[in-house]
Write a structure and sequence with these properties.
- By secondary structure, this protein is α+β, with helices and mostly antiparallel strands.
- The chain has 2 domains: 2-111, no CATH class; 115-301, Rossmann fold (3-Layer(aba) Sandwich), CATH 3.40.50.
- It has helices at residues 92-110, 138-147, 180-186, 237-246, 259-273, 288-301; strands at residues 2-11, 14-20, 38-42, 57-61, 64-68, 72-77, 81-86, 114-116, 118-123, 126-131, 151-154, 158-163, 166-170, 175-178, 190-191, 203-207, 216-226, 231-234, 275-281.
- Strands 8, 9, 10, 11, 12, 13, 17, 18 and 19 form a 9-stranded mixed beta sheet that branches.
- Strand 4 and strand 5 form a beta hairpin.
- The chain starts with a strand and ends with a helix.
- It comes from Haloarcula vallismortis ATCC 29715.
């Protein structure tokens, strides 16, 4: 999948020079001195001997992570470099899911972001995050907000920085992974996917709106749960920090030196400034318009 020449992209406010074609990322200009924030290279990588045979993540230190997938072995170092060893004949789209998902997300962790397993949207200039494990409906809920006229900041991950103790969300890249069935049913304002592979259940669809150039203040977090009806309720204070810890994207990295302390501290600061609620809803596409309406009603009913 490597291209003949490297290309420069932008993601999460970073310039990324990649040896792989990644159409989901917008092109960026290289600085006059040729410097970039992140490099993605292709090279042979040996599995660390200390890695658990059954694990897909291994932290040598807080500055050196490994992702151990069937599709590729990936080494992430110092928040600056991603080295990729693809499996033979791995489809381009499959590898891109690794690059712009787990690889970039773990690199953001090394760069000092609190990385939450969440999709985020911008509502009236404030970031709203939808938190949950894989398959919980984070992206679908973000699509509901997109259909309701809001901008999607990031898909499946929230890169949160603490700006003088106030959490802000850095927008990611202008694409989101959607089920073609949902796209056909609701016709959201997105562009058709590129270089798709038939075995992928979801594809990257390009967003038509611009991404904010500066971080957006985080105002609310919804914990997604299944339910027979659409309901929003408050989360007890003693549950809020634990909910954020459990939904940390880079949960496996907490064993690295210093990461657990930083993670717990960040969770505390987020709980102090952002409202956390539970959003229960039925898991079916027919409920999408009502879910968007409920979110809009809840946000406008009181101050975020």
């Amino acid at each position: 999948m490597a291209t003949a020449n490297t290309a420069t992209y932008e993601a999460f406010g970073l310039t990324v020079r990649s040896a792989f074609d990644v159409p989901e990322l917008p092109s960026a200009e290289t600085a006059p001195d040729g410097q970039v924030d992140v490099t993605i290279t292709e090279e042979r990588i040996s599995r660390p001997l200390s890695a658990d045979p059954g694990s897909t993540f291994h932290a040598v230190t807080e500055r050196e992570y490994y992702l151990l997938y069937d599709a590729a072995t990936v080494r992430i170092c110092d928040g600056k470099s991603i080295a990729v060893d693809p499996a033979a004949d791995v489809p381009s789209e499959v590898l891109r899911h690794v690059l712009v998902g787990p690889a970039l997300n773990h690199l953001l962790d090394q760069r000092g972001y609190f990385v939450l397993h969440a999709s985020t949207v911008s509502v009236d200039g404030r970031a709203v995050a939808f938190v949950g494990a894989s398959g919980a409906g984070k992206t679908t809920t973000a699509m509901a907000c997109l259909l309701d006229g809001h901008r999607v900041l990031s898909d499946d991950v929230a890169a949160i920085a603490l700006d003088d103790g106030r959490p802000v969300v850095r927008s990611g890249y202008p694409s989101m992974k959607l089920d073609p069935e949902a796209v056909a049913a609701f016709d959201p304002p997105v562009e058709p996917p590129e270089q798709v592979h038939s075995e992928r259940p979801r594809h990257f669809y390009g967003l038509r709106h611009d991404q904010p150039a500066t971080p957006v203040p985080l105002a609310r977090i919804y914990l997604l749960e299944d339910g027979e009806t659409i309901e929003v309720e408050s989360v007890r204070p003693n549950e809020q920090i634990m909910a954020l810890i459990e939904n940390t994207y880079t949960l496996g990295a907490l064993e690295a030196d210093g990461q657990a302390v930083f993670n717990f501290s960040a969770c505390g600061e987020i709980v102090d400034t952002a409202e956390i609620k539970r959003l229960r809803r039925p898991r079916n596409l027919d409920a999408i318009p009502d879910i968007a309406a409920k979110i809009r009603s809840d946000i406008t009913s009181d101050s975020c």
